[in-house]
């Protein structure tokens, strides 16, 4: 995967498009923050469709979730996580 700043992409667009034709992905950044991606075209994704789930959304209500402790201190959880690292 290649990362490129907006200005460089604008100046050297054809060379980056050549790399995309070769199958590489190009991440576009603005001040080191990724803002977009150029990926090779895939024919098999052209007819991609989103369909509704078979059970609809009612199936979500049937899921069994574990009970959470009544008192949760987010700061304590963050501190525990940092101690483990």
Quickly describe the structure.
With 85 residues, the protein is an alpha+beta fold. Helices cover 35% and strands 18% of the residues.
| Secondary structure tally: strands | 3
How would you classify the helix and strand content by structural class?
A: alpha+beta
Give the helix tally: 4
The CATH class of the domain at 2-41 is: Alpha Beta
Give the strand content.
15-25%
CA radius of gyration is 22 Å
Provide the succession of SSEs.
EHHEEHH
User: What's the CATH superfamily of the domain at 2-41, by name?
Assistant: YefM-like domain
Roughly what is the average pLDDT, rounded to an integer?
Answer: 84
Distance between the termini: 28 Å
What portion of residues is helical? 25-40%
Tell me about this structure:
By secondary structure, the chain is an alpha+beta fold. The protein has a domain at 2-41: 3-Layer(aba) Sandwich (YefM-like fold), CATH 3.40.1620.10. Helix content is 35%, strand content 18%. It is built from four helices and three strands, in the order βααββαα. A three-stranded mixed beta sheet has the order 1-2-3. The two termini are 28 Å apart.
């Amino acid at each position: 995967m290649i990362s490129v700043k907006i200005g460089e992409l604008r100046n050297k667009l054809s060379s980056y498009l050549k790399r995309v034709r070769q199958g590489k992905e190009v991440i576009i950044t603005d001040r080191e923050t990724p803002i977009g991606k150029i990926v090779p075209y895939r024919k098999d994704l052209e007819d991609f469709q989103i369909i509704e789930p078979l059970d609809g959304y009612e199936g979500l209500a049937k899921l069994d979730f574990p009970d959470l402790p009544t008192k949760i201190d987010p700061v304590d959880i963050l501190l525990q996580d940092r101690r483990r690292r």
